[in-house]
Amino acid sequence: MSVTGLIGFVGLIVPHILRRLLGADARVLMPASLLLGGAALVLCDLISRASFRFLSTEPPVGAVTALIGGPLFLILLRRRAV
Q1: Domain residue spans in the chain?
Q2: pTM of the shown model
Q3: In sequence order, what DSSP letters do the residues of 9-73 get, joined into one string?
């Protein structure tokens, strides 16, 4: 996290979610991770810009990514441990 920041967190979450949905075949998983990871970052940027527009400011995209990705990562860890 110290090198890539919080946006790199998407690269950890998205493939794990897709692996549960699509299976472990890398021929399917790699392109799907690329597309869904990009879409997730665009969605987080949109949320970041829209949610604070009335204050004429915006939080960093990494903060929104962490707020969404943190709980998802904990859910993935909990399901795997059980």
Answers
A1: 7-81
A2: 0.76
A3: GHHHHHHHHHHHHH-S-HHHHHHHHHHHHHHHHHHHHHHHHHHTGGGT----HHHHHHHHHHHHH
